Amino acid sequence: PSRGDVDDALGKFSLTLIDSLDTLVVLNKTKEFEDAVRKVLRDVNLDNDVVVSVFETNIRVLGGLLGGHSLAIMLKEKGEYMQWYNDELLQMAKQLGYKLLPAFNTTSGLPYPRINLKFGIRKPEARTGTETDTCTACAGTLILEFAALSRFTGATIFEEYARKALDFLWEKRQRSSNLVGVTINIHTGDWVRKDSGVGAGIDSYYEYLLKAYVLLGDDSFLERFNTHYDAIMRYISQPPLLLDVHIHKPMLNARTWMDALLAFFPGLQVLKGDIRPAIETHEMLYQVIKKHNFLPEAFTTDFRVHWAQHPLRPEFAESTYFLYKATGDPYYLEVGKTLIENLNKYARVPCG
Predict the structure, then answer these.
(1) pLDDT at 1
(2) In angstroms, rounded to a whole number, what is the distance separating the alpha carbons of residues 94 and 88?
């Protein structure tokens, strides 16, 4: 039966295998990493006739290939593992990067949300390319992987395209509030959804601005992030809550519930060095988790379930990790332990 567009995000090209390569090294499973890289090179085909999300494919597959490549080089230089490795993951990443580039063929430079890995965009057999809108996160979450691909390969086009999309979003911010909307027209640059928050649809746009400064050292990214951050703390942050507002009337709340994706925000606040509000929001989210075992996909300001799904999202775990690294407080190790125990108790099935 039709599953809607869920498979566009899942990809059908061994996404999880690629996405988890670097985790194996972090967890000291170096032999398993070597085996997994061989599996990727042997079995993954990037020329499939599948329509995929440009955003998901970038962060998980392109990012996974580049992360795997970085670690493969590191292990090879240490002299024990990956001695056979010869930039194969980087070549795959470059192949994938060129497959994603046609998505940027718009007047604004904002990418189409979906592309066919075999047929590209707009052709009848591509089954995609008629979209008019994309989310801010979808267009603004490319710079880390695209810049890394450019720096690794010397092909500057990837970084140029990602920067152009970010520049366009920055120009389109609502000037009086310095906030961005959730959805934008990729042809006209008009905001389609004018509500603004730090959750679904915008989240990683903010994350990538700060992390682009960390990775690339470009002050303009930090300046943009700080401008947005001041606006977030002025209008959206209502401690310990983070509530959506209208970009033109930022004193007006746009909804009475929060979504699970905003759980990344305390981690980003730690990266910025703003620890106290990070602790407060994280603790609020943990209370929701204690009440329901998982963070619901959406929940009300009084912690009731608004949407009951939980697709095993990692954002809260990342924020917990950042807070542990910043504070050294063993409380956050206990929180992490609870997350793992809940996953094993309630989410584990025989095949995964």
Answers:
(1) 53
(2) 10
Instruction: State whether the Cα torsion 297-304-341-333 is positive or negative.
Output: positive
297 in catalytic set: yes
What does the DSSP assignment read for 16-40? HHHHTHHHHHHTT-HHHHHHHHHHH
Mean pLDDT of 88-111: 98
Q: Please identify which of the residues 22, 207, 244, 315 carries the catalytic annotation.
A: 315
So what's the pLDDT on residue 351? 85
Structure token digits, residue 156: 């500057």
pLDDT of residue 6: 74
pTM of the model: 0.96
Q: What is the pLDDT of residues 152-186, one digit of tens each?
A: 999 999 999 999 999 999 999 999 999 999 999 99
CA distance 325 to 75: 25
- In the chain, beta strands by DSSP E: 51-53, 114-116, 133-135, 183-185, 191-193, 195-196, 237-238, 241-242, 245-246, 257-259, 298-300, 305-307
Catalytic residue among 8, 19, 34, 56: 56
Please give the pLDDT value at position 52: 94
Q: How far apart are CA 186 and CA 183, in angstroms?
A: 9
Structure tokens at 282: 């994280």
Catalytic residue, from 280, 283, 297, 318: name it.
Answer: 297
* CATH class, range 132-255: mainly alpha
- Three-state SS string over 218-281 comes to CHHHHHHHHHHHHHHHHHHEECCEECCEECCCCCCECCCEEEHHHHHHHHHHHHHCCHHHHHHH
Q: Considering the candidates 195, 203, 207, 259, report the single residue annotated as catalytic.
A: 203
| Residue appearing with tokens 């002299």 | 79
The reported pLDDT for the residue numbered 14 is 87
**Is 56 considered catalytic here?**
yes
Q: Would you list the domain boundaries of the chain?
A: 1-128, 132-255, 258-347
Distance CA 277, CA 233 (A): 9
Q: Is 145 part of the annotated catalytic residue set? A: no
Q: What percent of the chain has pLDDT over 90?
A: 94
